[in-house]
C-alpha cells in the first residue's frame, strides 16, 4: 500500500507540464504572464514529502510487530508453562472423558449406503434414493457444504498446530501425557468428518469432485495463518472459538437442508452428527480455557483480546479454487455466500464471542488484573455491541446503495452460477 500511494502521488503531481505559462489580463488591460514553475515545484515538494511519511509508517509498523511478538512470546515463560504442566491430572479427569471409545463411535459407513451390507442391487437403490434427496439442495448450500468439507479434510494442518504449542505438544508422536492423548484422540474423531462428507458428495453426483479434491490439496499445501503460534493460551482460545463456529456451521447446514428446508434427510443427518461431535470438542477446549482463566486471569484475558483484535477467521481463510491467487479473494466471496445462505453469519460470530465471554466470566474479572488486563477486559465486553453496530451500518449502506447480486461461477459445481451481494 505504501508503494502504491507513492506511485500515485508521483504520477499525478510530478509529471512534466507542457504549458510553461498562462496569460491573465491586468487592471490596465495588459497581459500578465504567470509562470507555472513555482506551482510545479510546490507540487513536487508535496509528493516528495510523502516518502519520509511512508518511511516513518513502515518503521512504526515494524516496531508494532516487534512489540506484538514480544507480547505473545511472554506466554512461553517457564512460570506460565508450569500452569499447563500442573493441569495435566485435571485434563485426565475432565477433558479426556469427552472423547468416545472407538467401539462406541459412529463411522461414515453407518450414515451412508454400504455396498458390503446392501449387496449390488440394494446399494444401487440406496444411491438412487440419496441422489434424489440431494437433487433438491440449492447451489448456494452446496457451495457452503464444500467449504465445510474442505475445512474438515484439511485435518493434517490442525494437529500440527496444536503440536506447536509449548507445554502440551506430543513430542514423540506417541507420548503418554494427557495432553498428547487428547490431541491424538481429538484428531482421530475429527478424521471421520471429512470422510463422511466427502463420500456423501461423491455419491450425490452434484459436485465436480476433481475440482473439490484439488481445493483440498491446495489448502493443506498452503496451510493456515496462526497468530501467536506457540502460545497455548492463544491456541486454546482460537480452537474453542473455532470448534463452536464449526458446530454452528454444520448445525445450520443440517437445518437448511433437512425436512424444513431442502428435504435431504441423509445430508441433514450427516451434518447433525458432525455438529454433535464438534460440540463435544468445543466443550473440551472451553473447559481448558476456563481453568486457565482461573489460574492466570490476566494472561488469559489479554490473550483473548490479542486474538479478537486480529479477528478469528475460519481455518479455510486460504481456500483457493484455482482461479483466485492466494485464496483471499475467493474466501471473501465464500464468506458472503455463507452469510447470505445462513450457514455462518456475522451474528453467529458475535454470538460465539458473547457465549465465550459468559463462559469464562470475562465481565466479572477484577482481582489479579493488570492495567493492560483491565483494558483487555473492557475491550472484549464492548466488542459484541460494536460488531452488531457495524453489521447494522453495513446493512443500511447496502440497502441505500441497492447493490445488485454479483454472479459467481463456482467450479466445484460445474461452473454453475451463484449470485451473491458482495460487501
Automatic annotation (TrEMBL):
Record's protein name: Acyl-[acyl-carrier-protein] desaturase
Signal peptide: none
Entry keyword annotation includes S-adenosyl-L-methionine: no
Complex formation: Homodimer.
Keywords: Chloroplast, Fatty acid biosynthesis, Fatty acid metabolism, Iron, Lipid biosynthesis, Lipid metabolism, Metal-binding, Oxidoreductase, Plastid, Transit peptide
Molecular-function annotations in GO: metal ion binding; stearoyl-[ACP] desaturase activity
Keyword Transit peptide among UniProt keywords: yes
Any GO CC annotation of this UniProt entry: chloroplast stroma
